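The authors assume throughout that readers already know how a fold can be written as discrete tokens. In essence, backbone conformation is discretised, so a fold becomes a row of integers matching the chain in length. A single example would do more here than another paragraph of explanation. For illustration, here is how one protein appears when written out as sequence plus structure tokens:

…
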Amino acid sequence: MVAVIDYDAGNIKSVIKAVEALGGEAVLTRDAETILNADHVILPGVGSFGDCMEKIRSYNLESVIKEVVAKGTPFLGICLGLQLMFESSEESPGVPGLGLLKGKIVRIPDCPGLKIPNIGWNSLDFPREGRLFKGINEGAYVYFVHSYYLQAEDESIVTATTEYSTHIHASVESGNVFACQYHPEKSSEVGLKMLKNFLEITA
């Protein structure tokens, strides 16, 4: 069973539908016991960094998320979910993130001819092998919607990058923790393959 963490963020139903399309069982929940007993846990989301961290803390989910990670359950953050996993964001100065991984979230710099937010399909480069990308060719296109991006402190965890006004850390992997800035659930067959790869990872 896949627990999809419910903290009132947007874009959650499409993640559940994608898991179900792959033959998995997904439940939207903020119940600690359900999350802790799940085989896989996904933290999706679209919204403001500060508002969503406030919701996570008001629902007492921060300690649950950290316990899930500590016990080795495969954990995936998507879009804002990736950003929340790091230490801070320029979008919400002074608001600490979950701090599961070291790094910061910064605004995509303005660039002539490019719109912010970045909405659309961008290709991925693979600086190192990542388990999410098994069977996927470098240069594959995935769907992004974001104005802020990750600068990971430890580049050895970065498994995919893309270029949009700057060099963007698009996906990371550290032990049982995975995250992607793009939306695999909206990235056609390539994205579903990434989700399938995640669901095949065991603790």
The first helix runs from residue 13 to 21.
